[in-house]
Automatic annotation (TrEMBL):
HAMAP family: Mpl. It catalyses: UDP-N-acetyl-alpha-D-muramate + L-alanyl-gamma-D-glutamyl-meso-2,6-diaminopimelate + ATP = UDP-N-acetyl-alpha-D-muramoyl-L-alanyl-gamma-D-glutamyl-meso-2,6-diaminopimelate + ADP + phosphate + H(+). Reutilizes the intact tripeptide L-alanyl-gamma-D-glutamyl-meso-diaminopimelate by linking it to UDP-N-acetylmuramate. ATP binds at residues 110-116. The keyword Nucleotidyltransferase does not apply. Coiled coil: none annotated. This is UDP-N-acetylmuramate--L-alanyl-gamma-D-glutamyl-meso-2,6-diaminoheptandioate ligase. Residues 2-99 form the Mur ligase N-terminal catalytic domain. The keyword rRNA-binding does not apply. The gene is mpl. GO terms for biological process: cell division; cell wall organization; peptidoglycan biosynthetic process; peptidoglycan turnover; regulation of cell shape. Its cofactor is Mg(2+). Its EC number is 6.3.2.45. Residues 320-443 form the Mur ligase C-terminal domain.
Length: 458
């Protein structure tokens, strides 16, 4: 079968392409925003890419077209699919019908941490000889690919609440029908499709309704938005996770006891009993919570806690999640995907705990997500950068609001409207030996990482 994917370079759609190829299908795809690491991964797998949307991309007469949720009516290739009467579907529906309907699905959902937690869970299963299938919205460095079909009943998936397609406005994760469900957290996001938090909670509750009674739902303790959603009705056992305080244990089934402030060393306890110690490369309390959620989910799939702990000690992270890109002239350059104020804040807090107060943290942020572009986070973005000594926020011409006001809210923030200007500024006067330079964007950011690295080397 020839499958053509419109919007193939999105992390989800790119993963579908890998799975379809592994199943023996011929796969082609098109996109207008092709950049690494997804483009590199697809090319390495021999998947043909069209760099622009065009009706001519369909001249090979594919058997079915999978249309990504970033595409809408008016797109030239979408219109050609409809006009020619070609068979088409959404990525989520194709995945369920072709792969998931006969599998034990372990789904990781929530506003933040989905990619990392899904990667941890897949790695735990992998290290314990289950050979799971997986589809992840990033590339775990332990695997080097974002998706694979797998050889056992287990399939681990990053479960996104964004809508499915222009012809199916339900959240994507409603197609997955998980047996094991992780909900990391729940905040307002995706302002382009959700009017308020309540509408997001409703979609999550639809997902909760699908988890069978003998399944498992893993959630953090004392998350008001999640607790409110679960009070709408729940028919599945809830496993709660928490970081224990020095004063008391809050009674959650799964708790973590920190041995280091930066989260690089912690103990895992189940019902108050010590089960193992994780020492790893990652930092931040958010990653500690991601880890305990992955351990709890793996336990539902009959993986022993000690075995999960041993696997996580060898977990090396995900590309574009505080990925060290280079070290030049004493400056460490990181690439990070964070694009919501909560994720920005927790990521920087983890780095601060690691490097201490004597080494500077410089952030370069591109407000690129749909929610960020609408200005929804205008009142909270400045505070999210509090752990940085210096933050540069890029103001593109087509942003829907004026970022300049953020510089008035915090003395560590400056606003610049030129990528070239930022490169010159960083290489010329802003950076010095010992600095940690963090680029934050959920896109390619015009290749600024490599440009700054090259300028520093010069």
């Amino acid at each position: 079968m020839h499958i053509h994917i419109v919007g193939i370079c999105g992390t989800f759609m790119g993963g579908l392409a890998l799975i379809a190829r592994e199943m023996g299908h011929k796969v082609t795809g098109s996109d207008h925003n092709i950049y690494p690491p997804m483009s590199t991964q697809l090319e390495e797998q021999g998947i043909g890419l069209f760099a622009e949307y065009a009706a001519a991309n369909l001249d090979l007469k594919p058997d079915i077209v999978i249309i990504g949720n970033a595409l809408s009516r008016g797109n030239v290739e979408v219109e050609a699919v409809l006009n020619r009467g070609l068979a088409y579907t959404s990525g989520a529906r194709w995945l369920y019908e072709a792969v998931l309907k006969d599998r034990w699905v372990l789904a990781v959902s929530g506003t933040h941490g989905k990619t990392t937690t899904t990667s941890m869970l897949a790695w735990i299963l992998e290290k314990n000889n289950t050979r799971p299938g997986f589809l992840i919205g990033g590339i775990p460095t332990n695997f080097g690919i974002s998706a694979r079909l797998g050889r056992t009943p287990f399939f681990v998936i990053e479960a996104d609440e964004y809508d499915t397609a222009f012809f199916d406005k339900r959240s994507k994760f409603l197609h997955y029908r998980p047996r094991t469900l992780v909900i990391n957290n729940l905040e307002y996001d995706h302002a382009d499709i959700f009017p308020d938090l309540a509408s997001i909670q409703r979609q999550f509750h639809h997902l909760v309704r699908m988890v069978p009674g003998n399944g498992s739902i893993v959630v953090p303790d004392c998350e008001e938005a999640i607790d409110d959603m679960l009070r709408m009705g729940c028919w599945t056992e809830i496993e709660k996770t928490a970081i224990a305080t020095p004063v008391k244990d809050n009674g959650s089934a799964w708790t973590v006891r920190l041995n280091s402030a930066d989260g690089s060393d912690f103990d895992v306890l189940r019902h108050g009993r010590f089960e193992g110690r994780v020492c790893w490369e990652l930092t931040g309390r958010h990653n500690v919570m991601n880890a305990i959620s992955a351990i709890a989910a793996a336990s539902h799939a009959a993986i022993g806690v000690a075995d999960s702990v041993a696997a996580l000690c060898g977990f090396s992270g995900v590309k574009r999640r505080m990925e060290v890109r280079a070290q030049v002239a004493g400056v460490t350059l990181y690439d990070d995907f964070a694009h919501h104020p909560t994720a920005i804040a927790t990521t920087l807090q983890g780095l601060r705990a690691k490097v201490g107060g004597h080494e500077r943290i410089i952030v370069v942020l591109e407000p690129r997500s749909n929610t960020m572009r609408l200005g929804i986070h205008e009142k909270t973005l400045a505070n999210s950068l509090a752990s940085a000594d210096y933050a540069i926020i890029y103001q593109p011409d087509n942003l829907g609001w004026n970022v300049a006001g953020l510089a008035e809210q915090a003395p560590n923030i400056c606003v610049m409207d030129s990528i070239d200007g930022i490169v010159v500024h960083l290489a010329g006067e802003a950076c010095r030996a010992g600095d940690h330079l963090v680029f934050m964007s959920n896109g390619g950011f015009a290749g600024i990482h490599g440009r700054v690295e090259a300028a520093l080397r010069r």
